Recover the amino acids of this structure.
């Protein structure tokens, strides 16, 4: 449980009291803070409300009355709940209550592991592969809620970001990362403008935003949802793969375990240009690695492990990519 200040506790109590009245419950339901935003610690947090028959998640954003952020997400959850009703194994967290002042909303709370929990911690490679298969099925269903269209691939923003990060890392990291960045620059010339699939996207599809239910997968946190290239949601999910221990021979040119990627695409059926996907995965892993090597950044123990794993995967990925590029066609 996270600690609330006196003012935060008073505000949270008022929110829970409002929801308790809405639910026709006598008194105020017990609650605790289970999440505080790293980037917006003073305005965004999540409470667990302990109801008599089920628990709820109360999502707070005190800036939302101005931004409209929570109202948009609540309306989207309502729409997606209806849009995904036809799918037995794919759904989103169910919305329950939207506060009239738009400061918070309430959803069901499901006490199930996330995909990240399984990918990071499971000792069973087959279990992890099934998580990728089920995640691919869920994302395909989400990406199908409205018609897809073609949109020209524009990767320059990614390489520009990488080049900027390279200026603020230790010399030995710059020396190792520069050839990787140059390889991506060459790929830009080949891939720019190629038509790729644009869909309604989650926008922040890391594995912590997909719960592993019993026979179903449940999506949450849709504040970044919008139309964009399908490949970016896929990349967001695949980046957790670095926490799987694997022999280099089992990792492909993107830096992902081959079998896990294959399992994902058994159920994800929108057309994806695989060279674009591999380029984007390598680019994302490189950006994440360089970000953790910024001279102004102090790594936690977890981040040190992540930084090492990112470096290991990148070395394998770019070595294999170079082999593929120089192999006679």
């Amino acid at each position: 449980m996270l600690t609330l200040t006196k003012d935060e506790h008073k505000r949270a109590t008022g929110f829970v009291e409002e929801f308790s009245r809405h639910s026709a419950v006598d008194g105020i339901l017990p609650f605790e803070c289970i999440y505080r935003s790293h980037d917006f610690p003073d305005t965004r947090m999540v409470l667990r409300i302990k109801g008599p028959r089920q628990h709820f998640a109360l999502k707070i954003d005190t800036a939302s009355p101005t931004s409209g952020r929570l109202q948009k997400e609540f309306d989207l959850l309502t729409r997606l709940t209806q849009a995904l009703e036809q799918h037995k194994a794919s759904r989103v967290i169910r919305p329950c209550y939207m506060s009239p002042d738009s400061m918070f909303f309430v959803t069901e709370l499901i006490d199930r592991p996330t995909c990240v929990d399984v990918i990071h911690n499971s000792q069973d490679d087959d279990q992890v592969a099934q998580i990728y298969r089920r995640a691919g099925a869920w994302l395909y269903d989400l990406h199908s809620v409205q018609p897809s269209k073609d949109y020209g691939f524009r990767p320059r923003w990614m390489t520009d970001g990488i080049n900027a990060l390279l200026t603020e890392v230790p010399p030995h990291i710059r020396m190792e990362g520069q050839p990787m960045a140059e390889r991506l620059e060459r790929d830009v010339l080949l891939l720019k403008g190629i038509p790729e699939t644009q869909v309604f996207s989650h926008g922040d599809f890391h594995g912590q935003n997909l719960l592993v239910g019993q026979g179903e997968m449940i999506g949450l946190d849709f504040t970044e949802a919008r139309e964009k290239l399908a490949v970016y949601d896929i990349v967001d999910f695949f980046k957790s793969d670095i926490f799987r221990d694997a022999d280099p021979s089992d990792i492909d040119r993107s830096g992902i375990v081959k079998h896990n990627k294959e399992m994902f695409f058994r159920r994800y059926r929108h057309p994806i240009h695989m060279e674009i996907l591999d380029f984007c995965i390598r680019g994302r892993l490189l950006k994440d690695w360089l970000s953790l090597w910024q001279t102004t950044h102090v790594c936690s123990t977890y981040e040190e492990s992540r930084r090492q794993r990112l470096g290991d995967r990148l070395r394998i990925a770019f070595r294999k990519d170079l082999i593929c590029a120089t192999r006679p066609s």
Summary: The mean pLDDT is 95. DSSP finds eleven helices and eleven strands in the chain. The chain has two domains: 6-108, 115-326. The two ends are 57 Å apart (CA to CA).
